[in-house]
């Protein structure tokens, strides 16, 4: 798997949850913080996103916003409308009013709440992809809009298709953001063929005892040049990132499988279960066995 796919697969838990919301002005809704990533897709009309830590953002039909590790925000017909509603399960889908209609698809992508990845840590509070700026996002939004419009007909496969389209939307939104920021950080790392080869090499074989020289050779550059460029784009030295990825891989295996600790240790490059347990506790703050039981 490539690095973005690997990262999403390792950190995602469960399927995306979503619901249709229709409001008529005036209206204002508060969204409390979530451990995953909140998202909104404007299906009809317009509204304003009101983040807690930045300026309001106007949203139009076809716009998508992603809020990774959201600290809470609001949506409203105007930026100064009070947030009198609190979004909660079981609330009415449609609330009538005298003003203009807005329809949104709102939901959450669940992510592991106790560990993360620097690729996602580099995201801003609000990732906004305006309508028409990315062809893949636009196409996926069109498919979602059509599927939701036909939901009353209950077409066969609807319960499988909508989550699949939402999963595709997440990848396309992240791709769009990384492409727009290809001049620094993880955008650089994933769009630089040399850095991408080194990252793919580590992800493909996390158990291998990689050296900086070997990884530099995979990237087609000297040890010193590779170490400098990798640290500048990824934000940490190559072997520090390798250890981080090994611990993420191990945490996923503890969460999703019944494999013995010794087997998990070997898959991430540790011949000693004791050495693995020590490294895991340093990374995650708890022993592997306790992490598995807690999960």
TrEMBL record:
Residues 196-294 form the HTH araC/xylS-type domain. It comes from Actinocatenispora rupis. Gene3D superfamilies: Homeodomain-like. Signal peptide: none annotated. This is AraC family transcriptional regulator. PANTHER family: HTH-TYPE TRANSCRIPTIONAL ACTIVATOR RHAS, HTH-TYPE TRANSCRIPTIONAL ACTIVATOR RHAS-RELATED. One of its GO terms (molecular function) is sequence-specific DNA binding. The keyword DNA-binding applies. Keywords: DNA-binding, Transcription, Transcription regulation. InterPro entries: AraC_lig, AraC_XylS_family_regulators, Homeodomain-like_sf, HTH_AraC, HTH_AraC-typ_CS, Tscrpt_reg_AraC-type_HTH.
